[in-house]
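Summary for the steering committee. One of the milestones for this cycle was to obtain a three-dimensional model of the protein with iron/sulfur cluster bound, which we needed before selecting residues for the alanine scan. The sequence and ligand used are listed below.
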Amino acid sequence: MPGLYIHIPFCRAKCGYCDFASAPGTTDEIDVFLRALELEAASCAALAGQFSTLYVGGGTPSLLSPPQLEKLFAILEKLAGPVKDLAEATFEANPESLDAEKAGLLKRAGVGRVSLGLQASQDALLRRLGRVAMSGDFLKAWDALRAAGFDNLNADLMCGLPGQTPADFAEAIGWLLRLKPEHVSFYALEVHEGTPFAAAGVKEDPEGSAGMYEAGAAALQAAGLGRYEISNFARPGRQSLHNLNYWAQGEYLGLGPAAASYLGGERRANTADTAAYVKAALAGAPAPQQYRETLTGRARTAERIMLGLRRTAGIELTDDIFIEFKDETERLLKAGLIERGGSSLRIKPERLYVSNAVFREFV
Ligand code: SF4
């Protein structure tokens, strides 16, 4: 059964490193967006009731007011059925817009998993990133979620930040682990074109990041959060089912600006331009697409390999991989980047940090 992804394209302010489709929005703009989302969801009614997981991401979905959240869940229930009956329902939040009232509302709506943005534990670093919430805000939001009964929380963490030392990073990991998260998504800073960081000339620090990443991955694993994907760590039974479906090349429907879908072998993505998305929906037209293509044969297998190799368990070494990508896999085996274990193929754990070198072989 497919997953359902909803993109909420609003944030209180733009972080310096962010290249997601998100921007500040007024209450009226969010209301109009919800109307457009409702229309897009109605246009997908043929898929109603067929979803196994839900992921509300962004942007900052928690920016919605309580009445807007009620409206959002009414839209979602119409398409996906009762949220509490799904195999997993995740909601992304940022601390500046998540209080006890919203935590309770999410719980009552049937959400089982919340992902909260942390990135760093030092306020000076958070300010440098352009984050709105400081570490004290994160603690308050985290406590509100626990008090509402959430026992499946993710925190996003970053390393390789401008001016961040290995000691800063070790402090952040220790700070986060004391909160006993069930899941951590952990990324090294990347500076993407078009972001405020790129405009300000902020540079990536691959070497510094690699050291921090390895230290962070080791600390997370020592604390019982097993690495199950390049950037994701979880306690047993707490892996993200929604994301595991992506990495298994499973089907999903994405609604909202920039949301991608993969259904019936076709992958596509809505325009990232929220105004264009809303305009089309209100006019009764489908959202303009960034791309739309049907994956077949070798391209489909290549994508399955690249997605599957993101997981530490790797992929089953099936005949089509053997036949169509024999040279590539042999080159990578010889270079010591991947390894075989029984009938599966995986990136060597110590090489996960340089996974892009592996993926390049399959592009
Ligand atoms: S909160 Fe997340 S989505 Fe919003 S601007 Fe910051 S990084 Fe981007």
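Key point for the committee: The first strand starts at residue 3 and ends at 8.
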